[in-house]
Amino acid sequence: xxxxxxxxxxxxxxxxxxxxxxxxxxxxxxxxxxxxxxxxxxxxxxxxxxxxxxxxxxxxxxxxxxxxxxxxxxxxxxxxxxxxxxxxxxxxxxxxxxxxxxxxxxxxxxxxxxxxxxxxxxxxxxxxxxxxxxxxxxxxxxxxxxxxxxxxxxxxxxxxxxxxxxxxxxxxxxxxxxxxxxxxxxxxxxxxxxxxxxxxxxxxxxxxxxxxxxxxxxxxxxxxxxxxxxxxxxxxxxxxxxxxxxxxxxxxxxxxxxxxxxxxxxxxxxxxxxxxxxxxxxxxxxxxxxxxxxxxxxxxxxxxxxxxxxxxxxxxxxxxxxxxxxxxxxxxxxxxxxxxxxxxxxxxxxxxxxxxxxxxxxxxxxxxxxxxxxxxxxxxxxxx
Length: 384
Ligand SMILES: Cc1cc2nc3c(=O)[nH]c(=O)nc-3n(C[C@H](O)[C@H](O)[C@H](O)COP(=O)(O)OP(=O)(O)OC[C@H]3O[C@@H](n4cnc5c(N)ncnc54)[C@H](O)[C@@H]3O)c2cc1C
Hints:
Layout: E1 5-9, H1 13-24, E2 28-32, E3 44-46, E4 52-54, E5 61-63, H2 66-73, E6 78-80, E7 85-89, E8 92-96, H3 100-107, H4 109-122, E9 128-130, H5 131-136, H6 140-152, E10 178-180, E11 192-196, H7 200-207, E12 213-216, E13 225-228, E14 233-236, E15 239-240, E16 244-247, H8 251-254, E17 264-266, E18 269-274, E19 284-286, E20 295-298, H9 300-303, E21 311-316, E22 320-322, E23 331-332, H10 336-349, E24 355-357, H11 359-363, H12 369-383
Helix pairs in contact: 1-12, 2-12, 3-4
The chain binds flavin-adenine dinucleotide.
């Protein structure tokens, strides 16, 4: 019997989950990764001072889907983790999403009580209310709160494209655009919030450690793969490849950018090692008006690493646009033009029955870690 074969392009979490499930199902899986390591956005490393950091900024695992968590736990243990985020507004630092505590610090006790009573009256079923719901309400005080949040909480260029488009659309892991009526300072509300004890990179390396999986790092997949449009054939090193092809990378390069390059937003990340214990109250501090830094993360508060007298801060610059997925494509620049281009590339993909798309870059939308895992499980299960 001939061995079932599969190719995977890109070894972030989407590619790693797919590789493992295919290998478990008896496929011989070849994986191409452009970087010198697997992990993609979830790559973590150890600083010279011994502090573990997430190289692409903070990534917190959260989900309500137990089967997603159970799958990941096959490859390493997790510790419970409650993510606490603060936002700097006009010289005050308050919990994010804004909650009852934040409203009290920002507006005083009686104004907070008035806001909470109106929030509960207008949205009796909700614990968290989105900015666009506030703006669409008939209550002028709540509309003002919504406008205040657009002005002071949302980071221009991350979750606010312009003043007429303020919803946290398509941002499944960003909770900045909500107000929470409780005093709970936790950033996420999901029933499962946890982090891998040895970091995501270790977890993913364990996941792909399987005799059926071969990894080629430092390998730009598009130097090995060619598409023949007339016969809907995928060539690997010039020879027809008849197995399943899983693509987790930007679609424009797959088709030589024939409809133009898809644009992304990215950020420059720098680290600062310091000789001190923890410096902050929350793992992440957001500075929406920051000129050089819009988010500061104290890694130790996420990893819960014991390291007396040492800490490392991760600073993210304001986002800027790139028209090239060769740089670090953080977030899709979902303008009408880019979405149209992406739809055209999707159309081209549909001509190749052996190709499946997975993950945030191929779909050109923000997906959480858990959503990527769930999608990969569903996709590979349907192929087996
Ligand atoms: C700033 C930021 C913060 C986030 N925070 C959170 C969070 O707190 N919680 C959460 O749940 N989610 C978060 N996310 C989302 C989460 O990071 C992603 O959904 C998930 O990691 C995406 O995994 P992926 O495998 O789809 O893509 P990626 O991790 O981007 O992997 C794609 C891989 O493909 C490789 N590649 C690209 N081109 C080629 C090529 N030509 N040949 C070979 N390989 C190639 C890349 O090097 C990369 O390794 C965040 C995302 C961003 C951008």
